[in-house]
Amino acid sequence: MQTKEKKKIIFIRLFPDEDVNTMIKEACKIHNVQSAVVLSAIGQLKKVEIGYFKEKGNYLPETFEKNLEILSLAGNITKDEDSYISHLHIVLGNEKKNALGGHFINGQVSVTAEIVVLKTSVSFKRTHNKSTGLKDMDLE
Fold this sequence. Notes:
By secondary structure, the protein is mainly β. The protein has a single domain (about 1-140), classed as CATH 3.30.1330.80.
């Protein structure tokens, strides 16, 4: 991973076989992020897992083993004690130019990934919602 920050904008470059979630969290740690917004991402992933929230306890995860291009990655990240919690959604494209997307669970870089993150000073946490089973954004 390579990473650089200027005026609260963090650029992250990932290399083959790096884990996207792990590296984003590592970049947040390096740049002392309290919270952040993922602005954009491009690149190609292999072995990517995405989900669709259907109902409490049922996220319908699906893993794709073939290379898929990142068309969009958006969401937010917040510090949680010594770690980070991210809520990201992704749109991916295949070789036939078809798109698929959903909640980004995890992915491994195939060729490269270039991610741009906006560092913020907004403090929020994730709290468990008993009725949905989700960790909701709590701005209190």
